[in-house]
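User: I'm putting together notes for a lab meeting next week and I want to include a structural view of one of the chains we've been expressing. I don't have a solved structure, so I'd like a prediction I can at least talk through. The sequence is below, exactly as it appears in our construct file.
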Amino acid sequence: MRDFKWSDTEKKIARAAYDTALQKELAAIMARFKELANAANSPGDMWEIELYLQNARKSIDAKYVYRYSRLPVLLSQLVLENLIKREDLQKLAQDKLDAIDSILEINRNYLSADDE
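Assistant: Thanks for the context. Below is the predicted structure for the 116-residue chain, given as structure tokens.
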């Protein structure tokens, strides 16, 4: 990925989108955790919950790496997963938007090819 230069404004926009998506994912994990805890009936259920939380944490830690060199890829992924909207990124510079749109297009084409 290209080494983009990020202005202070762009850094704030990217951070806000990142934080929004992260909070949505954490809220979903918390909701699922509560469902699992409420449904737990045996000590074995606790370990299943623990495994769920371990896997969720690994997934979050692997996905949410805030590096400017990787932000276009991550932001594209977050748009594809409907965790943020493309419009949330509208005030980024055109070079970054072009990179994000290119990644989105590639992924959408790939996903649509899987449907066939």
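A couple of points you could mention at the meeting. The radius of gyration is 17 Å. The chain has a mean pLDDT of 94.

User: Perfect, that's what I needed.
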